[in-house]
């Protein structure tokens, strides 16, 4: 039993008469990299050797600041897009404050759909989770809390498409940028 637990912790899962190393394949490694540099840290994957741990430390030392710069740039691009649309509406319809409010509302609703309300449907399909569990995973992930009680692509009884973890990794990056804008907006309101 101890051998099975050790094998599982190192990324080996049994699927019938075959063994899958899917946790450390390309998409699994990419997902691990994203969870490390975003500081989500689900706790389901970790380096098991001294060299791997040292590499992970070095990767995080450079990756976390670079990720913060990337998230800031993505957030600024999203904000510029909203402001550009608001300016266009002001010019076309001669609205002053209404255009800005309308665009901020549209950006909030679009972000809610793309990052919090629609992804749980994908998680329900691919993971077998309820909508509530998928919504919970979405928020816990994008807020970087990352408890690790729900992690995508870890059920050995399910087969996942090759694109799944890569798309979720990109969703995490853009979703974190969007949620950071929402939190910044809330902070501005509170101040």
From TrEMBL:
It is found in: Membrane. SUPFAM superfamilies: Voltage-gated potassium channels. GO terms for molecular function: outward rectifier potassium channel activity; potassium ion leak channel activity. It is a multi-pass membrane protein. Coiled coil: none annotated. One of its GO terms (cellular component) is plasma membrane. It holds the Pfam family Ion_trans_2. Keywords: Ion channel, Ion transport, Membrane, Potassium, Transmembrane, Transmembrane helix, Transport. The chain crosses the membrane at residues 50-70, 101-123, 135-153, 168-190. The keyword Zinc does not apply. InterPro entries: 2pore_dom_K_chnl (IPR003280), K_chnl_dom (IPR013099). Belongs to the two pore domain potassium channel (TC 1.A.1.8) family. This is KCNKH protein.
């Amino acid at each position: 039993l101890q051998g099975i637990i050790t094998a599982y912790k190192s990324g080996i899962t049994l699927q019938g008469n075959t063994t899958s190393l899917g946790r450390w394949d390309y998409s699994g490694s990419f997902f691990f990299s994203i969870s490390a540099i975003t500081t989500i840290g689900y706790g389901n994957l970790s380096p098991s050797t001294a060299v791997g741990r040292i590499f992970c430390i070095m990767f995080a030392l450079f990756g976390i600041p670079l990720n913060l710069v990337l998230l800031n740039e993505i957030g600024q691009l999203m904000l510029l897009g909203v402001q550009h649309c608001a300016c266009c509406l002001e010019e076309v319809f001669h609205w002053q404050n209404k255009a800005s409010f309308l665009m901020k509302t549209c950006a909030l609703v679009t972000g809610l759909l793309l990052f919090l309300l629609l992804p749980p449907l994908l998680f329900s399909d691919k993971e077998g989770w309820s909508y509530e569990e998928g919504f919970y995973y979405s928020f816990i992930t994008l807020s970087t809390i990352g408890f690790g009680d729900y992690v995508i692509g870890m059920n050995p009884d399910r087969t996942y498409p090759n694109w799944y973890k890569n798309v979720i990794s990109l969703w995490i990056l853009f979703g974190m940028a969007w949620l950071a804008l929402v939190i910044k907006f809330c902070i501005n309101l509170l101040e």
